[in-house]
Amino acid sequence: MLVTDEPTILTQHAIRTWFGIGGGADRYCQPRSVEELRRCVEIDPALRVLGDGANLLVDDDGVGELVVELNAAAFTAWEIDARSGRVRVGAGANLPKLINETVRQGLGGIEGLAGIPATVGGALVMNAGGAFGQIADVVARVFAIDRAGREIVLERSRIAFDYRVSGLNELILTGAELQLTPGDTAALRTKQKDVMAYKKNSQPMADKSAGCCFKNPTLRVPLKAADIEAAAGQRVSAGMLIDKAGLKGLRVGGAEVSPRHANFMVTSADAKAGDVIELMKLVQQRVRDTLGVELHPEVVVWSRAS
Length: 306
Description:
Number of helices: 7
Strand content: 25-35%
Mean pLDDT: 95
CATH architecture of the largest domain: 2-Layer Sandwich
Number of strands: 20
């Protein structure tokens, strides 16, 4: 197929998320090249980039901005140098598949991210990670387009990675270079399996959700309440706080705080995106009123007002 620099834009297109609910996009495009992506930016500099949809909730009314999905070959391919550990990968590449391949080739560094559903670009923007590591640990540089359509290369030293943040939100990522470490394939595979087993045993993996709903907060003041004692400056589990506030099983419409893991908002077949949004607000209010701690969403919410 001939690839031109004029993208095909569809209207009234559904947006796929792991919640399985929510509105769609007034305009949607799957650019096939960087040039087509640049043209999309010209059409709508405020465009939104859809990744795997695993950390996303779209309000029931949908969004008016152009939504682009980088699932063409130009954005999903990778090149792996097993000897040096260098990996060049597109922003639209599937992170779990990349993990499987790097482990197979005996490269360590991202096996601790096993079980995180994301594209590489989405993982970079939110600095995806958990108890077993974060993607920031292996980033050498990222490739992007800014909102003026200019191509940018950012070295790791210029990226403001922190807990679940990167400072990359306003850029449109096109790829990255990762620095992994050659190691023992069997040991890496064992760690990958151990991480997956831990998540399956502690999280509601079979339910529809967007993973952890809130970031683990850093306490501004000491906390001593509901059998919790933690010092100011300490990062504590959002799930633990929600649980201690007695909110497991709390429901709004078809949305519920998971009885298995309190930081997961799960949905039933009749749920609306508005149910999840209201449940999130209610959980924040109850934790604030009960424990005096402010929770901030990890789940990204798209709406016409944001």
